[in-house]
Write a structure and sequence with these properties.
Largest sheet: 10 strands, antiparallel
Distance between the termini: 38 Å
Order of helices and strands: EHEEHEEEHEHEEEH
Strand content: 15-25%
Number of helices: 5
Structural class: alpha+beta
Shape: globular
């Protein structure tokens, strides 16, 4: 099975607390959706915000919400203490979805507005939904062809500290590593001594002014081959990172 004919690929960008305040994030959410819609396929269509606390997963179209209404709904997803009281410093969670008539679609999970001093307190994760496993899904012409471009746009938009276009099973297989690689990975101001160790031929590193891009080129789109290549590359790069 190709990674582009499954629900395996995803995009995740993360940023430091205080990089984006809650009110400032509203426009970033709208611009992010516009960028993702440009992928076409399952990512296009009417994106809806899942109303926090609704018993039947009620949704509201993002296009129908002005900033005040959007802010109100996001604030309902406030982080909470063990006793259920609001913990604003922990930020807010929000979910957005878009579905096609055949049941396939995409989802975005957001963590925004945190003020705690954690490096990845904010995040946006884009994934594919396929409720009916008998319905074929193919994102080779959307995420497969344009994933790097969209990832770069989201990195710039959110001033991400890290980001990746990843593969779900490859991510799970890297649980023991502090740095998890995707097919494409971005690290902002993260010192890794790439010149000290011979990298696998499948890995291409591009140093940029504010960080580094790491590209893993498996030479196959077959799921198990991609997973193996990404995990092998991750092993080498994590060993280098540990030596810093």
């Amino acid at each position: 099975m190709s990674i582009w004919q499954s629900t395996q690929p995803y995009i995740e960008v993360s940023w430091r607390a205080n990089e984006q305040q809650l009110a400032e994030s509203l426009n970033l959410i709208r611009v992010s959706i516009g960028t993702i819609v440009g992928l076409g396929g399952v990512f296009a269509g009417d994106w809806k915000l899942v109303v926090p606390g609704s018993a039947d997963a009620e949704t509201m179209s993002l296009d129908d919400l002005d900033d005040a209404a959007l802010l109100d709904l996001i604030q309902r997803g406030v982080d909470r203490n063990h006793d259920g009281s609001a913990y604003e410093s922990g930020g807010y969670a929000a979910s957005l979805v878009t579905l096609r008539p055949n049941g396939t679609g995409a989802a975005i999970e957001l963590r925004i507005g945190a003020s705690s001093d954690q490096p990845n307190s904010g995040s946006l994760t884009l994934s594919i939904m396929q409720p009916d496993r008998d319905v074929e899904i193919d994102v080779s012409g959307s995420l497969g062809a344009h994933g790097r471009r969209v990832l770069e746009a989201l990195v710039d938009l959110w001033h991400a500290s890290s980001a990746r276009l990843g593969v779900t099973k490859a991510n799970r297989a890297q649980r023991k590593y502090p740095l998890r690689l995707g097919l494409t990975t971005f690290l902002r101001h993260r010192p890794v001594p790439f010149t000290l160790v011979r990298l696998p031929a499948t890995v291409e590193v591009s140093q940029v002014e504010d960080g580094v891009w790491i590209e893993v080129r498996p030479g196959t789109e077959e799921l198990h081959g991609v997973i193996a290549t990404v995990v092998d590359a991750s092993s080498v790069i994590n060993q280098m990172a540990d030596s810093v």
